[in-house]
């Protein structure tokens, strides 16, 4: 552990497919079939963001979090099946690598989804150790699917690895293990944190939960506990697992000098029966709607970030990379464009200081779908629901996303607010120029 306030410990917990409207502190909770008391309590201990934005799905967001760079730069634009080239190239510098350079102990317990071959596992990318899954949880359905055989599609595994020693399979990741994995991950985390405190090491723990990704199946101890089905039971388990990590950090006596972050990787699932909700916002992941962009985000840092505070200022997932490096006094890579901005001062004084970010461009794969600037949203391609696209718009749609005006993006007001195009086109021009000077790797699915 670290007791040096200039070298705080970091615990970063990322939920999978958790929509803005699921948690009690975001207007969901018991209204969604499962109370979330531990997450709600965490929100009262720090800063809750209403306008934290991510990328379109699992891989793009995780790459942005680990590099501070939009996936249009890194090539991590979409989820890719096993056996295809995927993940972060060797040239990218990860958050773990930058913190490791600053003598932080690092661990990854959970879902990686940024590389599934030697050289691209977490233990190859700055993490001392890792335990979890290299890709995603829908693969747990393989072994019970009609016609499946390992001869045509690789078996999924829970894996582990140590830096310098490679990674290895632990067990097959099937539907039974799907119900157990979040419990397994928490046990790994508790053991690792205990050792770091005993050895008095500054630490960075990245714990990407598996819940609530489909198939959304709860541990047997939570099955039937809500009376509202497996999705709600899984919500209850997710809340409990986060509470276990919080309690362990606090009981180890490192609460005061530990930055604790809880967020989601993207908006909610759109497929029944695992469909989630984004609350007042429209859309799910894989769209450019606010329900895809906005997700929960809570940060606690006792004595530095005020408790019981909320903000609607814009923060982007790339900012977390830059901000954590700033908070820990670590080096930010200077030999490449970094899209994340430092939010440290805003986080510390959210009622006095505005976020230094005014907006961002939103891509899905190679397509620029939308530009967000302050309370305004410009859509170039209209796809309010997944696979319901009307294609590229001759005249883009413009919405004001303030909740009392048009949170569901239903009324195009571009004709009456063409002035908004000026700051948006300036943002786009600067980004386009940067992309031209920093070309991305080719699409993985086009490399074979």
TrEMBL record:
Asked if the Swiss-Prot or TrEMBL record annotates the protein with the keyword Transmembrane, the reply is no
Keywords of the record: Calcium, Hydrolase, Metal-binding, Signal
UniProt feature coiled coil, ranges:
none
**Cofactor(s) listed:** Ca(2+)
| Domain Sulfatase N-terminal residues, every copy | 8-329
Does the keyword Transmembrane feature in the UniProt annotation?
no
Q: Which family does it belong to?
A: Belongs to the sulfatase family.
Tell me the PANTHER family matching this sequence: ARYLSULFATASE FAMILY MEMBER, ARYLSULFATASE G
Stated name of the protein? Alkaline phosphatase-like protein
